[in-house]
Amino acid sequence: MFHCSFFTISFCFLFFPLLLIPHENYSPVNALSVDLINTTCKQCADKSTLINYDFCLTSLQPIPISHIVNLQGLALIAMELALENATDTISSIEEMLSSGQFDTFALECLKDCLELYGDSVPMLVNSIGAFLFEEYDAASLLLSAVMETMLTCEDGFGEKGEVSPLTEENCSLMQLGDIALCIINLLSIALDSKFS
Hints:
mainly alpha, Butyryl-CoA Dehydrogenase, subunit A, domain 3, Pectinesterase_inhib_dom, Invertase/methylesterase_inhib
């Protein structure tokens, strides 16, 4: 497992209108709770060795809509941030490939990562779609698959002891995916307890 650092991510509001749609079935957390982000990040950081509490806060808090959504909205924000990370990283990899700064092995690794990130984008889109239909198991499987692709990308460079130029991006996408997975798990627990 590689060590993750973190950075602040911006939000492109692709699913902005969807975050405000109230769920009629249940509301596990008050949508206007000021402490929702802090509480969620603490719970998720406590449950996962991958999630850094500060990364979670600095990813979710700067998003204005995050302060007025419920737990479902926070999950969508995390997934949207993951999607933005993946698409931005594709552009970064394309720039790296054309820079002439990498040896043959690193270029092959970058090409593999480009393909992996290309595969991750539709998986993230599909995970968002599954989540919106409350198909939490399907959304979780897709997010887990995306996280596996990031490990594969990172591990490729390590085969010959190369330092990955994508560690920060891979770590960020893995953490965002794990934050979304954690929130989906919290929602599933709330849903199960409601119907048990």
